[in-house]
Here is the input.
Amino acid sequence: MADLPATIRVSYGTAIALGLREARQEVAPTTAYLLWDPGCRGSCTFCPRAGGNAATDRLSRVAWPEWPWAEVVRRLGERPGPLRRICLQTGWHDSAGAVLPLCIEALRPTGLPLSLTLHPAQIALVDGLLAHGLDHVGIGLDAATAATYSRHKHREWATDWPALTAALERHGPRLEIHLIFGLGDGEREFLATVEAVLARRGLVALFAFTPTGEGGGGPPDLGAWRRVQAFRHLRSRGAITWDGCRFDGAGRLISFGLSPDDLVGRLADGQAFQTAGCPDCNRPFYNERPGGTMFNFPRPLTPEEARQAIADLELAL
Here is the structure.
C-alpha cells in the first residue's frame, strides 16, 4: 500500500516565495512548482534526472531542494503570496498510479488550483487523475516529430502520439502539451504539431532548448523562436488559421495571413512572448539566465521589449 512521501522537492524560487529560503529573486513565481521523482524511468537526452538519477537536485536550469511534505503543504495553505496555482511535476515511476492521488488529496486543502505533469508513458493515468480533482494535466511530449522523439525521448512516436491525441479528444483544454523548440525539428514541422494540439482544443506549453551542458548544442534561432511563440498565441486565440499561414521552401514561416498593421496590433501587448503553459504559469528563468536573452518572459513586457520581440520575428512588416 502506497504512502504519501515524507519529503517533496520544491523549486528554488518557490522555496523563496514560501519563506523556506531567504533570498532575493528578480521575478517571483506565480505557480508553486513541486517535484515528485523517486527515480524516473525515462531517458530523455536533455534531462539531468534521466535514467533514475534521483540524486541530483537539478531539473532544467533550476535547483529543487527537498523539504518535509507537511511543511510545504502548511505554508502553501497559510501564505501563498504571489502563488496562484500548484504544479506537481513528476517522474515516470511504477508507483505513480498509487502515490499521485495521495499527493492530490494532500494538496487539496490549500485551495489552490492544481496541475500535474506526466511522462508520455503515463498517459493511461490521465483520466483517473483528472477525475480525482486536477484541473490540468501536462504531458511532456517535448519533441514534435517521430525522428526527434526517437532521438531524444527514446520512445516510439507511433505508439505515444495516438494515445496523446485520443486523450486530447476526450479532455481538450484540460491537457497542456509540453513542446521544446530546438531539439532538431524544423519550424514548419514543429508548428504542425502545435497546430495538431490546438486543433483538438489542447493547450501548448512552449520551452526553448537552452542547454546547460549535459545535452550539448546551442539555443534555437531567436527569430524562429519568436515566430513559434507568435503562432501559438495567435492560433490559440483564433486570430489565424493554419491554412492562412505561408512557409518558404525551407519551412520558415513567412506570413501569418494578416496585414502588417493587424499583426503588430495583435502582438503589441507582448503576451505572445510571455511564458506559455497552464493559467498563472510563469516559470521564471527555466529557459534562460537572468540578464541573458529572454526566451520566455516571466512577466509582462515593457513597450520597448514588445517592440523588440516583434522586430525579432524577422518578417517584412
User: Anything to note?
Assistant: The chain has one domain: 7-311. The domain at 7-311 is CATH 3.20.20.70 (TIM Barrel). The mean pLDDT is 93. DSSP finds ten helices and twelve strands in the chain.
